[in-house]
Amino acid sequence: MSKPRRTWKQVDGVLLLDKPLHLSSNDALQKARRLFSAAKAGHTGTLDPLATGLLPVCFGEATKFSADLLDADKAYVADVRLGETTATGDAEGEILQTRPVQVSPEQLQAVVARFLGPIAQIPPMYSALKRDGKPLYELARQGIEVEREARQVVIHQLAATDFDGVHFRLHVDCSKGTYIRTLAEDIGEALGCGAHLRALRRTRVGPLTLEGAVSLEALENLEEDGRTVHLLPLDALLHSLPAVALEAEAEARFAHGNPVPTELLAGKARVYDGAGKLLGVGEVRSGALWPFRLLRQEQTAA
Q: What's the CA gap between 234 and 61, in Å, rounded?
């Protein structure tokens, strides 16, 4: 007997998912989407299968704002192993070189401090960046290494803790595009012994944190009504923007794609009607607030 055909439905909201180990971000997204029977879904930044932690998943109208989090700062906790370098920069890769570790706690702290602030990183070969339309990791699996240009990233906060002479924990608060594997490798090279990641956990994406995140396993053990309790409202991705409330006439103009007067001088804002319902995001241009991204008017609140 064939399984009953799934009925996809309009679901609007943001899910803070605690991605499990050994699952790709897309696989985690698709599992979450099926649990909610959501017609449309997207996530806000890839985590490697080896990494766990915060993966914000956007359903329905929330996908219109997911791109804003791609540019957001992020925070991680990484477990680093000194003395071994691997093909992938993490524990999943073949060990390429083993070197003795003769590092004092003071040396570790001094070297880690050198990576605080703006730094240049060369993206790893085992990454999703593309060369001539092919992801670098596909080339790497064929034994091909190509030249990569260094990228500027910013390490806002950086601390090494729990050092036992070989392993330590690295706490990182960084800009978009930072490769934590590369950061660990570069610290290892600066210490003269090499290093790789043993584990990685993302704890923050923009204003969103692991607090309140839910696992796929926990969602699977809930009935559908219980799952929706974990959905945040559409504006959960927008709390870094100032809020603007519009009166009825201005609301109608804005909702139909027209500019409205504003006291804001520049930038973007989350825009609500008089009842507190989110209309979308506006952008200040030529002294007026123009619609930047509008929600469909019949959208249901999460």
A: 7
pLDDT of residue 66: 83
**Residues noted as catalytic:** 48
Percent of the residues in the chain that have a pLDDT greater than 70, as a whole number: 95
User: What is the rounded distance in angstroms from the CA atom of residue 3 to the CA atom of residue 6?
Assistant: 9
DSSP state of 299: P
Q: Is the pLDDT of residue 300 over 50?
A: no
pLDDT of 201 strictly over 70: yes
Instruction: Report which of 53, 22, 36, 24 is spatially closest to residue 224, judged by C-alpha positions.
Output: 36
**Rounded average pLDDT over 36-55:** 91
Q: How many domains does the chain have?
A: 3
Q: Which domain holds residue 40?
A: 13-71+207-236
Stated length of the chain: 302
Residues 33, 111 share a domain: no
Q: Tokens 């506006």 map to which residue?
A: 282
Pairing of strands 51-59, 195-205: parallel
Judged by DSSP in three states, 195 sits in strand
* pLDDT-wise least confident of 91-100, 139-148, 182-191, 247-256: 139-148
pTM of the model as a whole: 0.89
Residue (of 298, 301, 299, 250) closest to 271 by Cα position: 250
pLDDT at 70: 75
CATH number at residue 58: 3.30.2350.10
Kindly tell me the sign of the dihedral angle through the C-alpha atoms of 192, 195, 201, 205: positive
Q: Where are the beta strands (DSSP E) in 105-193?
A: 117-121, 130-131, 134-135, 151-161, 167-174
Using H for helix, E for strand and C for coil, what is the string for 157-175? EEEEECCCCCEEEEEEEEC
**Closest Cα partner for 204 from 8, 32, 56?**
56
